[in-house]
Design brief:
- The chain is of the alpha/beta class.
- About 45% of the residues lie in helices and about 10% in strands.
- The protein has 2 domains: about 240 residues, Phosphoenolpyruvate-binding domains (TIM Barrel); about 55 residues, no CATH class.
- The radius of gyration is 22 Å and the shape is globular.
Length: about 325
C-alpha cells in the first residue's frame, strides 16, 4: 500500500481478533495487540521506503501513509482509554476511532445483523462515550502530538439496555455531541448498501455542523456485489458529495488475499509444480505489470543490503 501510494492505512480490530487469535470480533483480544500491530505496520512502511530509495539510487523517497487504528470501545473506562491512546500515540499512529458500544458486550458492527443471531448492538450512555473521547484528546495533548480522533457511533443498529432501538436520529444526535467536542471525523456504522441512511445521517449532522468531516466504512460484510449486479451500486463520489471525506475498506486486503490463496492452493494441491509454473506465467502477464511479490528478494530489500554490504566492506 505504501508503494502504490494509498493515502492512509487502517489497523482493524477484526484483524486482531480473527487473524491473530482465531476469535470472532467480540472484544476479547488484548488491547496492547493494537499497539503491536501499529509497530508491525511501521516496520513495513519503513522497509518499503528504504528499499525503494535504494532501488532508485536515492532519486525517490515514498510518502509516508498515516495509519489510523481501531480502539474498539476503549477496553474499559476513560482511564483505560487514556492509557491505550497514549501507547498508540507513542507507536506513531495518525488517528484512532472509538465506538459507543458497551466494552463488556461489544461485537463487530456487522455480526449481529446476520442469520438467527440478529440483535441490537449494546450501547453505553452518550456521556460515557463522550468521556472516553475526551480521554483520547487529553492523551494526545499530554503527549504533545496531533491525533485524528474519529468518533464512531453504532446507534443506527444499537440500543441502550432496556430501551427501544436507536436509529439514524440517535446517531445524528451522537454526532452533534462529538462535533461539539471537536472530533475530527464522525463515522456512523450502517448495515445495508443503500444511500438512504448515509444521506439522512449526513444531512442531519451537517445541518448544524456544515464542515464536519464524516467517515464511511466500505465494509466487505455488505452486499456491494449484488448491488452492482442489480445496477444499484452507490459511488464514492456520491458519498464524497455528502461529506464522507474518509472512505475506507476494513478488510479489502484480507478478502483479496483470501481469494488468491484459495485459488492458488487448490491448484497447487492438485497439480504441484505445474501450478507453480502457471503462477509465474500469470504473474508475468498480470494487468498493470507483475505484482511486487514476484521478485520476493527485491521486495524484502535485498538490493539495499547488497549495496550496504559493499560500501561497508570497502569494495566500493
Amino acid at each position: 500500500m505504501t508503494r502504490l501510494g494509498f493515502k492512509a492505512l487502517y489497523g482493524s480490530g477484526w484483524q486482531l481478533a480473527a487473524v491473530k487469535n482465531m476469535y470472532p470480533d467480540i472484544g476479547v483480544y488484548q488491547s496492547q495487540q493494537m499497539v503491536e500491530l501499529a509497530l508491525e505496520l511501521w516496520k513495513g512502511i519503513e522497509g518499503a521506503r528504504h528499499t525503494h530509495y535504494y532501488d532508485t539510487e536515492g532519486k525517490e523517497l515514498l510518502s509516508v501513509p498515516p495509519m489510523f487504528v481501531d480502539m474498539e470501545a476503549g477496553f474499559g473506562g476513560p482511564t483505560q482509554t487514556f492509557a491505550l491512546a497514549t501507547e498508540l500515540v507513542r507507536a506513531r499512529v495518525g488517528g484512532v476511532h472509538l465506538e459507543n458500544q458497551d466494552p463488556a458486550d461489544r461485537t463487530c458492527g456487522h455480526i449481529v445483523n446476520v442469520g438467527k443471531a440478529k440483535r441490537d448492538k449494546v450501547l453505553v450512555p452518550r456521556s460515557n462515550w463522550l468521556a472516553k473521547l475526551k480521554a483520547i484528546k487529553a492523551a494526545a495533548e499530554a503527549m504533545g502530538q496531533e491525533l485524528v480522533i474519529i468518533a464512531r457511533t453504532d446507534s443506527v443498529d444499537g440500543a441502550l439496555p432496556g430501551q427501544s432501538a436507536g436509529g439514524v436520529k440517535m446517531a445524528v444526535e451522537d454526532a452533534w455531541e462529538a462535533s461539539e467536542l471537536g472530533c475530527d471525523v464522525i463515522w456512523a456504522e450502517f448495515n445495508n448498501v443503500d444511500l438512504e441512511q448515509p444521506q439522512a445521517f449526513a444531512e442531519g449532522v451537517r445541518k448544524y455542523y456544515p464542515n464536519q468531516m464524516l467517515g464511511f466504512n466500505l465494509s466487505p460484510s455488505l452486499y456491494w456485489g449484488k448491488a452492482k449486479q442489480a445496477g444499484k451500486l452507490i459511488t464514492n463520489q456520491q458519498l464524497a458529495d455528502l461529506g464522507y471525506t474518509l472512505q475506507f475498506s476494513t478488510l479489502f486486503n484480507f478478502r483479496t488475499a483470501g481469494l488468491a490463496l484459495d485459488k492458488g492452493l487448490r491448484k497447487f494441491a492438485a497439480a504441484g509444480l505445474d501450478a507453480l509454473a502457471d503462477l509465474q506465467i500469470e504473474e508475468e502477464n498480470a494487468p498493470g505489470g507483475p505484482p511486487m511479490t514476484r521478485m520476493h528478494q527485491k521486495l524484502a530489500g535485498m538490493n539495499r543490503w547488497l549495496i550496504l554490504e559493499s560500501v561497508l566492506s570497502g569494495k566500493i
